Amino acid sequence: MKKWRRVLAMAWAVAAFSTPVLAAYPEKPIRLIVPFSPGGGGDVQGRLIAASVGARLHQPIVVENRAGAGGNIGTTYVAHAEPDGYTLLLATAATVINPTVWAHPGFDAHKDLVAVAGWSTSPLLILANPAVPVHNLHELVDYAHSQPGKLSYASGGIGIITDVEMAMLDQNQQLKLLSVPYPGQAPAVTAVVGGYVGLISDSVASGLPFVKGDKLRALAVTSPARIPSLPDVPTVTEQGYPELARSAWYGLVAPAGTPPAVLKVLSDAVSAALDQPETRQRLANVGAIPFRQDYVAFQKFMDTEGQTWAPVVVRANLHVK
């Protein structure tokens, strides 16, 4: 009897002390690690999350860019952070692609990270410097075949979805494009705008202003239908390249071991943020679509994405030892 009384007393103590702690979360600012350089599509989405979700939590979310190795540096940092809900990662397709691309990425997406919530999706654009004499994918394929080994594309990081998109186009159409690496998507786009490299794939979120400003030419969009912001740009599917119909996605993940109660607080805050008309308008302004997934559904989605992309990466011969 005394033993059971001690057990009950301990259980009561744990409940009594843990409930206020969880109820108070978050008690201080939260760091959101964006594993990419400032100015790219991921950075844009990360800052939208920080502003919108932070307002729901009544605590600031501070964006910290930790770029490098296709997103591995920032991801590894979060994977080994304290699982207390105060260090989060902006998750993208690279989060689940990189373990297949890199022999030693520094993290195991299944063991070291746990899903928090989905945030948005954004179709991709296939873009060219205006000096490249092509206006659609058919013209690009013909031009590349006539100039084997002379046309190049900028890569913001091996394994990120925009890099995979261009690698798939190159391999599937046997274009013999040269991949030019840059330390992030933003400098890669800058190189194409400057005419140092001819082609790039970028999210609508970060590529749209350059198209509107006539700095880059959009050859195709990867969405199922043409997008309102670029109604004259045909989709990859209507041009006969349905295998390129991929979209970037964004969400939040946390270090494995983060308490489910904390995950729920964060997940609910993301959902509440996506309910706000101003948030949805901000997403629309950068060509993104709300992607509402709670922490359970988003975990399943990420697991499926990892299985989907693995054979694509192998076929595209993307691998870093």
From TrEMBL:
Entry keyword set: Receptor, Signal
Signal peptide coordinates: 1-23
Transmembrane segments: none
Domain of life assignment: Bacteria
UniProt keyword Cell cycle present: no
Family under the similarity heading: Belongs to the UPF0065 (bug) family.
Name assigned to this protein: Tripartite-type tricarboxylate transporter, receptor component TctC
